[in-house]
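A.,

Following up on our hallway conversation. Structure tokens first:
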């Protein structure tokens, strides 16, 4: 990725007003958190305060929280782990948790030995067997904490990242994003919502509006869009090898991504004051390739569809066959199949013979 000018550590910006977020051409935004504990209710409140959808914040799954706490449980002697926890059995009703102790059996052999067992009842959401050791008590406390509170990762996932995406940010590096000031309002609202959560810090560094910054931001924006275009190119190339047409929902998603790329390129050009006309042309060219592949796959699929089999009513087929015969043949058939004199009209002659044949077949 292009190396844009930015410090390694971003300055925390608690208690800033939204107007202070809008100086320069853009801001580089990141976050740090330590010891963050927030209930789902409080997180939903902050999501709502930031103008986002609080219903997207789920309740904490008690079993997943238990599994997370068990995976992280360690008892150390200095740096050496002497006890840990594991789940040897799990079904829809119970989760069995063992506390394991490291034991050295000989100079060459060692093993983890079960020294205590707890059982979680998933139907009542409580411990049916608590265990007897101090370690078991510590593990229960850790599980209860995980089942009650989200950590900073949930704040990042449900509050910060939706705003980062909504602001059409550019990835500077993993966990750090460039937010154009023309679209920074979602991130500014998150900043305000986080003011009283001291364990989670949203950090912002303003990018000055100068020639060097414009070149760096232009390169970063171009590379960000081209990275996504490369992903689309790979997906489109995969379509070419398919034996079927491109699914309707897939083509809709891909074409929507092209529209998003185009709007982002226009935004970056305006917000960062850089020229991205060549990039916009590349987006259009790749979109045309996608549409061509979609059309080809549709044509191939249509060509493979067999022509519908024409179902002919036997009675209709019989009458058509009789109508194609010569009059002498029809007269002979009338004499064999029918009673009385033959009618003069061809249609009546054909119909009479057909009815007589059908009657004899039904008999």
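Then the amino acids I'd put at each of the 363 positions:
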């Amino acid at each position: 990725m292009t190396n844009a000018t930015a410090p390694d550590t971003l300055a925390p910006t608690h208690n800033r007003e939204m107007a202070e977020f809008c100086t320069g051409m853009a801001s580089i935004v990141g976050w740090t958190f330590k010891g963050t504990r927030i209930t789902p209710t409080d997180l939903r409140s902050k999501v709502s305060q930031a103008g986002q959808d609080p219903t997207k914040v789920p309740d904490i799954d008690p079993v997943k929280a238990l599994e997370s706490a068990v995976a992280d449980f360690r008892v150390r002697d200095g740096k050496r782990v002497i006890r840990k926890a594991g789940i040897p059995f799990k079904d829809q009703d119970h989760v069995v948790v063992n506390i394991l102790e490291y034991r050295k059996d000989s100079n060459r052999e060692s093993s983890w030995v079960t020294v205590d067992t707890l059982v979680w009842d998933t139907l009542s959401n409580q411990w049916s067997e608590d265990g007897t050791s101090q370690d078991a008590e510590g593990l229960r406390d850790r599980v209860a904490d995980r089942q009650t509170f989200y950590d900073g990762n949930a704040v990042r996932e449900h509050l910060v990242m939706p705003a980062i995406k909504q602001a059409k940010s550019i990835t500077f590096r993993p966990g750090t994003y460039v937010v154009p000031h023309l679209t920074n309002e979602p991130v500014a609202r998150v900043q305000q919502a986080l003011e009283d959560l001291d364990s989670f810090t949203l950090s912002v560094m303003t990018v000055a509006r100068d020639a060097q910054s414009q070149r760096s931001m232009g390169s970063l924006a171009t590379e960000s869009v081209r990275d996504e275009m490369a992903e689309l190119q790979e997906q489109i190339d995969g379509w070419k090898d398919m034996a079927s047409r491109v699914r309707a929902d897939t083509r809709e998603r891909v074409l929507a991504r092209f529209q998003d790329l185009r709007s982002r390129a226009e935004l970056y050009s305006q917000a960062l004051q850089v020229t991205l006309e060549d990039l916009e042309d590349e987006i259009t060219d790749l979109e045309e390739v996608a549409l061509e592949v979609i059309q080809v796959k549709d044509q191939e699929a249509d060509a493979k569809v067999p022509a519908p089999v024409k179902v002919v009513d036997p009675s209709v087929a019989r009458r058509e066959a009789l109508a194609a015969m010569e009059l002498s043949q029809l007269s002979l058939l009338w004499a064999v199949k029918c009673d009385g004199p033959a009618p003069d009209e061809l249609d009546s002659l054909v119909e009479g013979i057909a009815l007589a044949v059908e009657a004899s077949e039904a008999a």
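Residues 1-20 have pLDDT under 50 and may be disordered. Curious whether your intuition agrees with the design.

B.
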